[in-house]
Amino acid sequence: MFFSIILFMWLCFMNDPKVSVLIITYNQEQFINDTLRSAIDQDYKNLEVVVSDDGSSDGTPKIINEYTKRYPLRVKAITNGQNLGITGNCNRALHQCTGSFIAIQGGDDVLLPNKIRMQVNWFSESEKRVLCYHDAEVFESSSNEKICNYSEMAPLISGIGPVALIERMRLGAATTVMVRTSSIPEYGFDIRLPMVSDWKFQIDCLIGGGEYGFIDGVYARYRRHGKNSRLKASKQYYEDCLMTTYLVEKECTQYALACRKARARIYGGMAIDMATRKNYRSAFQMYMKSVKESYSWKLLPGIIFILLPGALRKLLIKLFGKSIPELNYSQH
Q: Which of 62, 118, 264, 276 could bridge across to 293 with cysteines, CB 3.0–4.6 Å?
C-alpha cells in the first residue's frame, strides 16, 4: 500500500511539466529572503528555482547558498561568477534552466501562492500559448504599503503576435511573466541591450505568432525602492528602449509602425521625467519629438498632469484613470 501511494505521487509529479523560476540578483540582501521563500513555497512540485548572483559585494551570495544547502533539489544557484550586468546575468541563469516553462522573478519581488500552478493551467489549454502574465501589486518597500495594482497603469490584454506588446512597451510587470521555453530564441536575452532586455525578450518569444494572455488575479508583489534599476539609471533605460525599437524594426520590417508608436511613447515618458524635474523647455521639445514619431493626444495630458498639485492629480486619476492609464503611469 505504501509503495502504491509513493508511485501515485511520483506519477502526479511527473505529469506536471517542469517549471524553472529564473531569478537574478545584485546586492539585494535586504530582499532576497522574501524573494526565494516565495518561489520555494509555491505549491507546484515539479519546480526548480534558478538564481544567479552578479558578483554582489553584500551578503546576497551567502543567503542564496544557505537556501541551496537547505533545498538542494529545489534551488540551483550561481554565486561565484563575474559581474556581467543585467542582461548577461539573465542569460547565465537562463542557460541553467531546464524547465518546459520559465517564470521570471525579480531579485526583490515576491510571488504569491498558486502563481505557478495557475499559469501552467493556462498554458495547458493550447500549444499555441507562449506567454502568460498576470496582475501585480506595486508596493513601497520601506512601508510595505500598496501603491496600486500594475493593471491600473497597463490594463491586462491578450492576443496573438507582438504588435500590442511593441506599441505598449509592456504587458505587465516583468516579474509576472512566464514563457514557453520552446519560444525563446537561441541567444536568449539580447546582449545588445545591457539593462532593459526583457521587453525584447518577450517580443522575440511572440515573433512566431504565438498567443499571449493573462490569468485573473494578483499573483505577485512588485517592490518599489530607491535601488530599483529603472529608477536609478533612467538614461540607460531609455537608451535600451529606443534601441529595442530600432532592432525590431530592422529585423522585422512588418512591425515598423508599431515601433514608431513605441518610440512616441518612449519620448513621451522622457518628456514626463523632464517635466517632473522642472525642465519644462526640454520636456516640450521631447514631446514634439514624440509627436513626430506617432501623434497621440494622450501624451500631452501626461506632461501637464505631472505639473498639477498632488490632490488634484489624485482626483483626476479617480475620474479618468481607467480611460487614460497614462495618468496612473505618470503618477506612479
A: 264
Domain assignment of residue 88, yes or no? yes
Q: Is 244 contained in some domain?
A: no
Q: Are 110 and 146 in contact (CB under 8 A)?
A: no
If you average pLDDT over residues 250-278, what whole number do you get? 90
Q: Which three cell numbers stand for residue 146?
A: 500598496
Strand partners, 22: 50, 104
**CATH number of the domain where residue 221 is located:** 3.90.550.10
Q: Assess whether 225 and 256 both reside in one domain.
A: no
Tens of pLDDT, residue by residue over 1-13, are: 444 434 444 444 5
CA diameter of the chain: 78
Residue 311 CA from chain centroid, whole number: 30
For residue 265, give the C-alpha cell: 511613447
Structural domain containing residue 54: 15-230
99 domain residue, yes or no: yes
The pLDDT, as a whole number, for residue 273 is 82
pTM: 0.87
pLDDT tens for 188-210 read 999 999 999 999 999 999 999 99
Distance CA 320, CA 71 (A): 48
C-alpha 258/C-alpha 265 separation (Å) is 11
291 pLDDT more than 70: yes
